[in-house]
Fold Spermidine/putrescine transport system ATP-binding protein.
Amino acid sequence: MQTPIIEATGIVKDYGTFRALHSVSLDVGTGEFVALVGPSGCGKTSLLKIVAGFEAPTEGSLRIAGADMAGVPAAGRPTRMVFQKLALFPHKTVRDNIGFPLKLAGVPAREADERIRAMLALMHLDPAYLGRYPAQLSGGEQQRVALARALVSRPSVLLLDEPMSALDAKLKKSLQAELKNLHRNLGTSFVLVTHDLEEAMMLADRICVMRAGNVLQVGTPSEIYYSPVDAFVAGFIGDTNLFPVSIARQADGSTAFRSPAIEAADPTVPGDRVAPRVAGGSALLMVRPEAMRFVTAGAPAPFATLSGVVEEFFIKGASILYRVRVEGHAVPVVMDLSGTPNLPAQVGDAVTVGFDRADCFILQE
Ligand SMILES: Nc1ncnc2c1ncn2[C@@H]1O[C@H](COP(=O)(O)OP(=O)(O)OP(=O)(O)O)[C@@H](O)[C@H]1O
């Protein structure tokens, strides 16, 4: 990570007797894009509001750009926040909405006009919109105006609280692309709260997974997806296979596993394919659905196999999702379609499913 712009250390937040954040620590690098994800009520918005200065932490320290933020009001911080629910002034035009922070800062009219127009162009909004009121814009356009207003004062950090959740799928896609471009071009650090995991994976340099007021894991999308710290993170970030196994750690750092459903000549995985907290005894063997394949005659033998019967399948455009019943469990298998209409298996077919050692990861139950 580059030099941190945000350093949140041991942040506790109590609302009355309810503790919403339990000693949360998170650093965000200068120019970095971090997504906060986690189930509803886990404390994402509380953390964002503490960074923005809309809530004070009960305990802990927050530094932004090296300065302690204790007692610094929201307006005095180098941060701006964009909310899920639009916070545009309904009775002000687009020009006055975007220009509002500049007016507060006493920026001369001519410079303000130039900056407002530059923001409009950056957000791909027509200058003819300057005289319109928010109600005369689509939801996506309103969010672009809200982004323009947040960015016009050139903050070091942009805080985004589910800015796209009220938009339809198509608008959402275009605004996501816009955000990615903005981030690339501006050098501003972004912290995005989102429920949409695909969005987090697509946009963020690092993802912070929270649960019940705690940070469970912070990592790149690939670390979170392929090396989750526990079964909760694994299941939260995408569909996955979690096979119950009994394990024994070996002297050389590798781990041997046993499962009645899985056949393998040498059932061991290297130490780097085991989550740090895993001890011995029972554990879960994770294999992502797209790392599983049907075993066919003549193809190289996989590391391990399971036998079952195809229960159902769904064609999802370029790929196909199979659910294979193995000893009472439905095992998801996702494969790319080869471009032919011939499917690799039909419902009711007996199949052998295989996967490679490099695609295994062992987690605590
Ligand atoms: N002002 C408040 N007073 C009392 N409790 C609050 C207040 N704000 C939030 N909470 C509680 O704190 C917890 C965390 O809320 P927060 O809004 O930070 O969660 P979240 O992860 O952003 O949730 P969501 O994804 O649903 O927006 C929740 O249980 C919520 O009910």
User: Anything to note?
Assistant: The pocket of adenosine-5'-triphosphate is lined by residues 15, 18, 20, 38, 40-46 (CB under 6 Å). The CA atoms of residues 196 and 239 lie 14 Å apart. The chain has eight helices and 21 strands. The two ends are 31 Å apart (CA to CA).
